[in-house]
């Protein structure tokens, strides 16, 4: 049995990553690009969980198909957990990965070594049309924020984030290497059980 699963994002980088992580499952991956009329979901939740649930629920309702959404935040200890739920818009609108990274480095100016500890947190929500229960899982990867960017791959803050126990930033890793250790990879691994249950449903 093959089911269609809608990824609740317009971010092509996320679609590529999530599609790769789900490639071994018998699912047909769709995204916002397959539904040109789908309205944007306003991410106004106070937490990553709220945003992930809202995105998955609204997309499932609009498409009539199971929907998977993620919301991700970078939590920096020295910034009291910021940028957190505001990671994508840390430097304001219009959102820009380059501007967000510059602001992060500026805010951490003068802070060195282990004091630059951070964690990437990803919450994944799976929603079914007509089902009020939205299931969520999460994944977390700890590391430090470097003082300058390293690597050309990835997106967002990837070139600044060095995961604990590794010599390469997310942006320096191959896709398969990053997916094996990343917050999103861990969350999707935890979500596999939810998707498997969906596949087994009568």
Low-pLDDT segments: none
Percentage of β-strand residues: 15-25%
Could you please say which CATH topology applies here? Maf protein
Radius of gyration: 17 Å
Identify the CATH architecture.
Alpha-Beta Complex
Question: Separation of termini?
Answer: 10 Å
Keywords:
202 residues, alpha/beta, Maf protein, 31% helix, globular
Protein architecture, described:
The chain has a single domain (3-200), classed as Maf protein (Alpha-Beta Complex). The longest helix has 18 residues, at 183-200. The chain has 202 residues and is α/β, with parallel strands linked by helices. Strands 1, 2, 3, 4, 5, 6 and 7 form a 7-stranded mixed β-sheet that branches. It is 31% helix and 23% strand. It has 5 helices and 7 strands, in the order βαβαββαβββαα. α4 crosses α5 (183-200).
Short description:
With 202 residues, the chain is an alpha/beta fold.
What is this structure's SSE topology?
Blueprint: E1 3-7, H1 12-21, E2 27-31, H2 48-63, E3 67-76, E4 83-84, H3 97-107, E5 117-127, E6 135-145, E7 161-163, H4 175-181, H5 183-200
